[in-house]
């Protein structure tokens, strides 16, 4: 098996519209690079569960859709629904971590985005996640136990801690680097990034290697 020469780390949230719309662009890049790239997704909760009091100055989810997400979605031939509310995403990230350990992360990762943005499902609710897991032929009893016991919370907290050195004011955060180098040597891009911009960053990394 070939060893990846490029590593792309992405911090995103399943309730972030721009993260959802960026997904097919990153998939296209990974497909083009093939075994030369390791694409690694990280959890970054927009609304951590410790934030019990809503920020009165925060925008409503619909603001992002009207201003930015719908035009981008149209350009990328994505037809999402406008979500109703913005659920907490911690349990969804726990489900993704559960899937990663079982070798089916990509399937579950994309299903979580679709469930929220295309099907209008509340992915903050454990019952909804268990229904989705059943549809994906996952072990629902094992998933429930993992969520109820917080089995993967340390992984989520580690992802957030790793992002402390990055500008996370705009998601997704996309960091591209040689696989052998540290994160602080990466080229980091934010938000909606066109395919050619990503490709140019990869070329720059390869040329410097």
Automatic annotation (TrEMBL):
Residue ranges occupied by any DSBA-like thioredoxin domain in the UniProt entry: 8-202
Pfam family name, one: DSBA
Transmembrane segments: none
Recorded superkingdom: Bacteria
PANTHER family, sorted: GLUTATHIONE S-TRANSFERASE KAPPA, THIOREDOXIN SUPERFAMILY PROTEIN
UniProt-recorded name of the protein: DsbA family oxidoreductase
Organism: Stutzerimonas azotifigens
